[in-house]
Amino acid sequence: MSQVEKILEALDALQESERSGDVFQPVVGLPQAEWKLEIEEWNRLGVLIRRLELTDRREIPWDLPRQIGILKSKLTYLDGDFRLVEQDLPKEAAILRNTASQKAEGSVTYFEIALRQAGWLSLVCYRVEKSGMPRTVAAANLSRETFIRLLSDLESLVI
């Protein structure tokens, strides 16, 4: 059974026990990685996901430029290409954002990925209101197939 299949199985099993209010916050610990998710809705058709964190348990430093390249080449299905918006070499960290964001009446929604050489990644969906309000975490509506593809692509960072 692949890591992705184990994650999906755990999400189905933990769906009710790990719910806090309107949000389902499972933590799936696997031998190579720990996955933390913040989900509004999970069913057989898809997922409304706010946040996903991946921590590599192998204690092998990531090659940050290589990981950035992998993410930019693989995650094109999440509303366009990702581009590097910030890289902090002393802290060995980087931030990527997708270039083609979803625009709704009065707001813009986009994905942001933060990663560290220490083997940590966070993918968050943000919404910015055109009225100038600060950005807020929003739920991204992903089909089950897209979510599985996302998990597989992120899994490739830790295998």
Strand and helix layout:
Blueprint: H1 3-14, E1 19-20, E2 23-24, E3 27-29, E4 33-42, E5 46-56, H2 64-74, E6 82-88, E7 93-98, E8 102-104, E9 107-116, E10 120-129, E11 136-137, E12 140-143, H3 144-155
Antiparallel strand pairs: 1-2, 3-4, 4-5, 5-10, 5-12, 6-7, 7-9, 8-9, 9-10, 10-11
Q: What can you tell me about this protein's structure?
A:
With 159 residues, the protein is α+β, with helices and mostly antiparallel strands. The protein has 3 helices and 12 strands. It has helices spanning 3-14, 64-74, 144-155; strands at residues 19-20, 23-24, 27-29, 33-42, 46-56, 82-88, 93-98, 102-104, 107-116, 120-129, 136-137, 140-143. Strand 9 (107-116) and strand 10 form a beta hairpin. It is globular and about 45 Å long. The protein starts with a helix and ends with a helix.
- Approximately how much helix is present in the residues? 10-25%
Helix and strand content put the structural class at alpha+beta
Can you count the beta strands?
12
State the helix count.
3
The chain-level mean pLDDT equals: 88
How would you describe this structure in keywords?
single chain; alpha+beta; 159 residues; 10-stranded antiparallel sheet
Structure, briefly:
The chain is of the alpha+beta class and 159 residues long.
